[in-house]
């Protein structure tokens, strides 16, 4: 069987993790394009491929073109490459950009190849455990895309653009907002010289719980019962941090409302 080939448009964190996984599945990267030469060279070196910072120099004979770039520049890059490279399949890895970004450009095979994970440079991941969410321009290409995705992940799902947008939104709450809460917690600890590591057992147990319980069932703390004595005392400690004060107040209210909703649903059963 002829080896399939890839060109990577973008050399950021997603591409740096996904490209080696596809290489390990037997696909060959021909070229890496990035506006930043250092990024393009680094990923190309990892994949033993060529690189370019000139969009007009992107090779036109690859089987797949993976776009792993910022949402704001994706449409212009797709439109720029479609006339020369459109014989290949175009794929993007974004959570919030619809499949329609590829429409009206004369492309026949295009789709979405979205990995739901937080990626950081220098931190390896087991891509077999990373869920991949797919959307394709046709049933035939969907089957091809599923086979491709299954070569790198054991968790492959088909998802529409609208559902993927909601998935991406949920990931912001589950990952980015949670991580910011860690930052706020660390800032409070630092004021008293307490190391952030003191929270790690609590963080680990909180994360482990939701593998066995729903997040609502695992929720504890004063906000669940809306204990105003505790809430007001803690809010008083945040008077010099108005934004953090508002986050605490709104989060506590949201936790309590969700707890009331859960209790109401249990009572109605």
UniProtKB/TrEMBL annotation:
Tell me which residues make up the Pyrroline-5-carboxylate reductase catalytic N-terminal domain: 6-81
In terms of domain of life, where is this protein from?
Answer: Bacteria
Annotated DUF2520 domain residues: 131-255
Pfam name, any one:
F420_oxidored
Q: What is this protein called?
A: DUF2520 domain-containing protein
